Amino acid sequence: METIYNAIGTGYNITRKADPFLTGRLLHFLEPHGGKLYLDIGCGTGNYTAALARQGLNFVGVEPSEEMLKEARKRDEQITWLQGTAEQIPIEGNAFDGVIATLTIHHWVDIDRAIKEICRVIKPGAKLIIFTALPQQIERYWLNHYFPEMLGSSIIQMPTSDSINRAITKAGFENIGTEKYFIQDDLQDNFLYSGKSRPELYFNEEIRKGISSFAALANVQEVKAGLLQLKADLESGEFINVKKRYENDLGDYLFIVAQKKA
């Protein structure tokens, strides 16, 4: 996956920006305090790292892709950016007062080892905030209708709720809570289901390049055929019926909040 993100790192910031609402929810769950130190694991080009740092917080960003880190350093030279993975964080133990992990856990090679490593580098009582999508949520994306193979690969990639909770509990976390997130029309971060109510976004090649499912998991012919069908359905009005069949109350994404035992 490092290779994939090295390839898409340049230009990633064109379509992937820190969304104000999501940034606000991360702040809400993290409950940070000035003067303390926080970690963004799998920070990418540092969109959310920098957005939170602008709130007066001290952040370190860790990311395996050097191309992503080059872009992050251009964004904010005051933030410490380190190359590393969730399974191997180049920091001493008990260093951080909280951790965020946004849309990254599906790239972790070993979720049990990663959560254990995160637990190692944070202080007792510190919070871990994960923003992700569960397999059952992705199954309800209308994208399945147009790109079934790509979405199938995406679903397989996503850790289940049980596997996440098991890893969190095993590593020494408690007070696990969740909050559903439904895509908002003014979403500024163009990740996989950002076009839920704005399907025209998927016709933009730059947006597709910034989405790992399209960049790494998609079959070129399926994407081409899917876009043609989507265009036809939008023109005929059939898209309304397709979208309606996938409506649900599961949430499109999920915040998971845990706290290291004191």
Description:
There is one protein chain. The protein has a seven-stranded mixed β-sheet, sandwiched between helices. The longest helix is centred in the last third of the chain and has 17 residues. The chain has a single domain, classed as 3-Layer(aba) Sandwich (Rossmann fold), CATH 3.40.50. Helix 6 packs parallel to helix 10. It is of the alpha/beta class. The protein has 14 helices and seven strands. Strand 2, helix 5 and strand 3 form a beta-alpha-beta unit.
Q: Which segments are poorly predicted (pLDDT under 50) over 5 or more consecutive residues?
A: 1-11
Helix/strand order, N-terminal first: HHHEHEHEEHEHHHHEHHHHE
The end-to-end distance, rounded to whole angstroms, is 34 Å
Number of separate strands:
7
Helical content band: 40-55%
Query: Which value, in Å, is the CA radius of gyration?
Result: 18 Å
Shape category: globular
Q: Please give the CATH class.
A: Alpha Beta
The CATH superfamily label reads Vaccinia Virus protein VP39
CATH topology: Rossmann fold
CATH architecture: 3-Layer(aba) Sandwich
Q: Provide the spatial order of strands within the biggest beta sheet.
A: 3-2-1-4-5-7-6
Q: How many domains is the backbone divided into? A: 1
SSE class: alpha/beta
Average pLDDT over all residues: 94
Approximately how much beta-strand content do the residues carry?
15-25%
The total count of helices amounts to: 14
